[in-house]
Structure formats: structure tokens, C-alpha cells
Known about the structure:
Elements: H1 5-20, H2 27-33, H3 40-52, E1 56-57, E2 66-67, H4 69-79, H5 87-97, H6 104-119, E3 122-125, E4 135-144, E5 147-154, E6 159-165, H7 172-186, H8 204-221, E7 228-230, H9 232-237, H10 244-256, H11 258-270, E8 273-277, E9 289-296, E10 304-311, H12 316-338
Helix pairs in contact: 1-3, 1-4, 2-3, 5-12, 6-12
Amino acid sequence: xxxxxxxxxxxxxxxxxxxxxxxxxxxxxxxxxxxxxxxxxxxxxxxxxxxxxxxxxxxxxxxxxxxxxxxxxxxxxxxxxxxxxxxxxxxxxxxxxxxxxxxxxxxxxxxxxxxxxxxxxxxxxxxxxxxxxxxxxxxxxxxxxxxxxxxxxxxxxxxxxxxxxxxxxxxxxxxxxxxxxxxxxxxxxxxxxxxxxxxxxxxxxxxxxxxxxxxxxxxxxxxxxxxxxxxxxxxxxxxxxxxxxxxxxxxxxxxxxxxxxxxxxxxxxxxxxxxxxxxxxxxxxxxxxxxxxxxxxxxxxxxxxxxxxxxxxxxxxxxxxxxxxxxxxxxxxxxxxxxx
Length: 340
């Protein structure tokens, strides 16, 4: 908080002006448009101070200023007013969600589309999953005397299958008995609680438990699999990405989604709405972008993450209110429809 009240006011006005119209903001515009009660010379001095402290910069060919990443961050944390999404928009979004008839795939696709349309940004949504994989049910199906199919169901409905070659012939009754004992032992547990070492080392039960442990561990590592995307066309419209190299970089970023994995892990852990501006020194590929993300679903329940990606010149207050509302709505609907 190294700025005076007037400097904070001027910084907020510059950022709001630039978000509305991506043209460098000059002192003359501020003095003529807003009742600041100061001269253009005083406004120029304050803009110079803000630039010196890293909140603004200016193109070489212009006398006006544009925000820096530091400026946007200060704006989001100290100057931006939290706003609730207007009632009409909330009702429209809610009505759209209630048209999907509780089908998960449709809900994921709709959430990405709604986020993109409401924010005019690219949207990314992950399917729901437990904070950690939770064991729900196991089946062992005999295919031949020495071949069985392992079917593992995790909380949230994820089903994994693996064919096992057995060391000796097993009947279906024997396989069902093994599955029943493991279901009794592991129902509702996390991967850390799947303990193959407590079983007889050379038993089929121990072998199956090791496979279950490996599957659950892999699922916990693959948090960004199956990302739903929408709104790439809005990125194409942004003047920041009209240059071919910048456009190619952000399109590649959205298609690969690799950056999303680390962010997703943080959002799932912290909760709330997270705002990443310009990569913040951690993700170079996001240098021209901002991301607004949130977790949906309760902290102890199955859930996922959703967010929007756009230029750093993003209408943050609106984007945050949309992301927050869609996340809350999806969490409520998942609990209402699926019980988690």
C-alpha cells in the first residue's frame, strides 16, 4: 500500500478505461472525463509516479499509459469492488443448467459454454472427481480359468478395467470371494489406505490390491485429464492476439492445457476464486493472459475446477462474479442430482 489515495484513484481509473478500450490512457482524458479537481500537469505527475513504481507503463509512441501486471494485481486486490452477478444473468444461467436433465457430460459442456459466453473468454472445465480417489467397489470377472477382468469403480462413477493373467485356475466363486473381502477392507478409502503389504505377499488378493493402488495413484496424478473447452473464438477477437505469434502461443496453450494441471492442484487445495495475472513469473506461456479459476463442489466432496482465460486486459470484476456463480451453481446441482 505504497500509494496515496489520489494515486490509487487514478490507477483505478486508468485500468478501467483501458479495460473498456485498449488505447493508452493520457492525463488529458482523465482530467476531462472525471471530476478529479486537479490540473493536467498534476495528473501527468501522478501517472509518472505510478509508472516509476511499476504499476503503469507506456508505449514509446504514445503519451498515454497502460497497466502492467503489477498494476492489474493491485487493482484486483485493493481497488476492484466485488460485485454480484445481476439477477437476470443468474436466472438465465440457472435456467440453462436445468435443461441438461442431470447428464454429467452435458453439464460439463454447458458450463464451459456458459463461462465463455458470459465472459467472452476461453473457458476450461474439468470433470468432477474426489479430492483424492476414493475406492467404491471392485469386481473380478472370470473370462477363462486363468484369465480374469478386474473392474474398479471409484467414487464419482469413474470405472477402470484391467485384464489379469492368473498364476492358477480360479472359479468365479473364488474370484467373487476375493473381491468381496477387498470391498469390505477398502470401501471408501483413499489410495494411502490401500495397504497391499498387510496381505499375504504371494496371494491374489495382494496382487489385486497392488493393482488397485497403482490405478488410484495414477488417477490422483492425472488431475487435468478430460478438460472441456469452449470460447476459443473470443480469444481470436482480442486485439492483444492479432499478431500471429501471440495467437499461436495462446491457442497452443489452451489446446494442450498443460499449465492447467498445476493451477488446478492449487485451486482444488485452496478453494475460492483464484486470479493469475500474466503468469506471475511462474508460467511464461501466460505472459499475455490472465486466468480466473474456482473449485466447484464442497471441500470434502467430489468436485472439479473451472475457469476462464483471456488477455490481461480482462474485466476482472465481471469474470470473477461469473466464475464464482457458475462454480456455486454446479456444486449445488451436483449435490442435488448425484448426492455429492
